[in-house]
């Protein structure tokens, strides 16, 4: 989870002491922060959430989001971070932070979460690409700790074996829970002699996984493991998420049980839009953002509200553009929009008038929205 743009909602930061810095691979590392007793309530979190680090980089104050790998019962915040280039914010963190330093860390947030069901028999499948393992690792550690009847299957893709982040920790989990956790690794740039595990995780791989790995179920001889899947977790790049999510849906998993977290900007819909909308032209838009009032006109409603405001150079906060991160959440005060399927807003929030600008198709000649959520 990453976001470099300012957000309309206030983020609360506190200084946390860096307790550990560990290089995982040549391009990934982990940071572990202590949670002091006086801040324990502020840093209570759910598996799958993220925090924002605020850090001075090249004279500029930068904020960036990172998913936690730690589970709530561990009593600490651990982040997995990828270095994309020598000029990146992540590389600056790795080179300049030392154990014992105080770092401005936001209070946890995010909605890549699951409802805990400790008394049920569940089957949960995870798909991770690269550093996308971070929130899924948090989920799996939490579920193994709190749900004794749940079994987990992880399919983890990387370029090669040398780039597998958190391999030791994953191996320890398999050794600790051999009857409940199964992990399979896939490599896009390494030959293994087995075509199933060579190449990227995508829709074709999902079909092979279903047919060759998630086959006969020892707990029910008349069905397969895939038939028993209750929830699917996906985290990685947009194309991977789109391909796998649609494959899972086509193979019988309801959309409401397919959860995903995006680690980069992605300008496409995860699931195809199956509805046509009436054309509206010359749409008047009033909106409040960072305590300023704005007015503009949209030529038509062929594009979503967020995309049109960004084209006009308004500083609207966003990260994914795909209804996942919630950065563009706002309140519809006047007018009508069609809110497309999204992974962020609850039914209660939608009923209260909240929308995501990135997933909103305008259906009236005038609308008024407020991005300044309290």
Automatic annotation (TrEMBL):
<protein>
    <submittedName>
        <fullName>Ferredoxin--NADP reductase</fullName>
    </submittedName>
</protein>
<dbReference type="InterPro" id="IPR017927">
    <property type="entry name" value="FAD-bd_FR_type"/>
</dbReference>
<dbReference type="GO" id="GO:0046872">
    <property type="term" value="F:metal ion binding"/>
</dbReference>
<keyword id="KW-0001">2Fe-2S</keyword>
<dbReference type="InterPro" id="IPR012675">
    <property type="entry name" value="Beta-grasp_dom_sf"/>
</dbReference>
<dbReference type="InterPro" id="IPR036010">
    <property type="entry name" value="2Fe-2S_ferredoxin-like_sf"/>
</dbReference>
<keyword id="KW-0274">FAD</keyword>
<dbReference type="InterPro" id="IPR006058">
    <property type="entry name" value="2Fe2S_fd_BS"/>
</dbReference>
<dbReference type="GO" id="GO:0050660">
    <property type="term" value="F:flavin adenine dinucleotide binding"/>
</dbReference>
<dbReference type="InterPro" id="IPR050415">
    <property type="entry name" value="MRET"/>
</dbReference>
<keyword id="KW-0408">Iron</keyword>
<dbReference type="InterPro" id="IPR017938">
    <property type="entry name" value="Riboflavin_synthase-like_b-brl"/>
</dbReference>
<keyword id="KW-0560">Oxidoreductase</keyword>
<dbReference type="GO" id="GO:0016491">
    <property type="term" value="F:oxidoreductase activity"/>
</dbReference>
<dbReference type="InterPro" id="IPR001433">
    <property type="entry name" value="OxRdtase_FAD/NAD-bd"/>
</dbReference>
<dbReference type="Pfam" id="PF00970">
    <property type="entry name" value="FAD_binding_6"/>
</dbReference>
<keyword id="KW-0479">Metal-binding</keyword>
<dbReference type="Pfam" id="PF00111">
    <property type="entry name" value="Fer2"/>
</dbReference>
<feature type="domain" description="FAD-binding FR-type">
    <location>
        <begin position="11"/>
        <end position="115"/>
    </location>
</feature>
<keyword id="KW-0411">Iron-sulfur</keyword>
<dbReference type="InterPro" id="IPR039261">
    <property type="entry name" value="FNR_nucleotide-bd"/>
</dbReference>
<dbReference type="InterPro" id="IPR008333">
    <property type="entry name" value="Cbr1-like_FAD-bd_dom"/>
</dbReference>
<feature type="domain" description="2Fe-2S ferredoxin-type">
    <location>
        <begin position="283"/>
        <end position="374"/>
    </location>
</feature>
<dbReference type="InterPro" id="IPR001041">
    <property type="entry name" value="2Fe-2S_ferredoxin-type"/>
</dbReference>
<dbReference type="Pfam" id="PF00175">
    <property type="entry name" value="NAD_binding_1"/>
</dbReference>
<keyword id="KW-0285">Flavoprotein</keyword>
<dbReference type="GO" id="GO:0051537">
    <property type="term" value="F:2 iron, 2 sulfur cluster binding"/>
</dbReference>
